[in-house]
Design goal:
Elements (H helix, E strand, L loop, with lengths): L3 E4 L10 E4 L9 H14 L1 E4 L6 H8 L25 E4 L13 H6 L16 E10 L7 E5 H6 L3 H7 L3 E4 L1 H6 L8 H6 L3 E4 L1 E3 L6 E3 L5 E4 L4 H15 L5 E4 L6 E5 L3 E5 L9 E8 L4 H5 L1
Parallel strand pairs: 2-3
Antiparallel strand pairs: 1-2, 3-13, 4-15, 5-13, 5-15, 6-12, 6-14, 7-8, 7-11, 9-10
Length: about 300
């Protein structure tokens, strides 16, 4: 096997993203390669693959090496509005005719929520395991993606705060995250789809055994807490978890594929010129069970 994985920032004590070389993701993976990538994910949390010229079919085939895939039910564009199949999340500024969305288009405004720190699909009862994002077309500047290591953030908490966090259950919904930006233009169907779900605030990785914080802008309440106190506490935890020492900023190249573990990371998109095309396709591997079931 010619594939190698190396740390991108070996001098950083907290977060270690990995860069993968010597592999072509457009062909079928061997069992040995898939196992090595899974082990790399357990170690690094984020893996970067450069120069991977994938279409959706090839990206889906690669993604299925790591588990069952989610449907894109969290996207605001559904049915005849969709540009891509329900197997692929459309992380772009394009409509179904590949025209750039107007500045005030509700799909673009909803998508601005991606600039908030979040974990993919934490608003689903069974959240996301891996996300795989393919850069098909990128703007000339901006649009980076930042990742925060929630394992290192947990390790750095004091014992008293850890004891407070351990038993807590949060409620997650896209209605919470979008409301912080002033977006409230939800249809009745969207309100039903985005009904809050419960997630543990602290989770343990099923392979490494390491604990991590499970934070996201989607988390709007803590069960049993007054809402203002809960939101203040979650904001403080997020500020702690997104210190620069815990963050890797990925500068995109066209045809990068970046793969990350939502169980141990948060991420956010950075601004770019919205008049330029940014076309990113995301496939998403689902967890096997909810955080509530895992804790039980």
């Amino acid at each position: 096997m010619d594939m190698t994985i190396r740390a991108i920032n070996p001098e950083t004590r907290g977060f270690f993203a990995g860069e993968v070389s010597g592999i072509d993701l457009s062909r079928d993976l061997s069992r040995e390669e898939a196992t090595a990538i899974s082990a790399g994910m357990d170690q690094y949390g984020v893996l970067v693959f450069h120069d991977q010229h994938l279409d959706d079919a090839l990206q889906l085939a690669f993604s299925r090496n790591f588990g069952g895939l989610e449907q894109a039910t969290g996207d605001i564009a559904q049915g005849t509005e969709r540009r891509l199949s329900m197997d692929v999340n459309d992380i772009s500024n394009l409509d179904k005719n590949n025209n750039i969305l107007a500045r005030d288009d509700r799909r673009r405004l909803f998508g601005l929520g991606n600039r908030l720190w979040h974990s993919d699909s934490s608003f689903k009862a069974v959240p996301a395991k891996y996300s795989l994002l393919s850069a098909r077309s990128i703007p000339g500047d901006g649009g980076n993606t930042e990742f925060a290591d929630m394992r290192a953030a947990w390790d750095a908490l004091d014992a008293e705060t850890k004891a407070i966090c351990e038993p807590l259950v949060c409620e997650h919904s896209q209605r919470f995250s979008r409301s912080t930006l002033g977006f409230s233009d939800f249809s009745d169907d969207e309100r039903r789809r985005f009904t809050p779900v419960q997630q543990r605030l602290v989770r343990r990785h099923p392979v490494t055994g390491r604990k991590s914080l499970f934070l996201a802008s989607h988390a709007g309440t803590i069960v049993g807490w007054p809402v203002p106190e809960a939101r203040a506490f979650l904001r403080e935890l997020t500020e702690h978890a997104t210190q620069r020492r815990f963050v890797y900023a990925h500068v995109w190249r066209q045809w990068d594929l970046v793969m990350w573990d939502n169980r141990v990371t948060m991420h956010r998109a950075r601004p770019y010129d919205h008049t330029q095309v940014r076309d990113m396709h995301r496939t998403t591997v689902a967890c096997e069970q909810s955080t509530m079931e895992q804790a039980a």
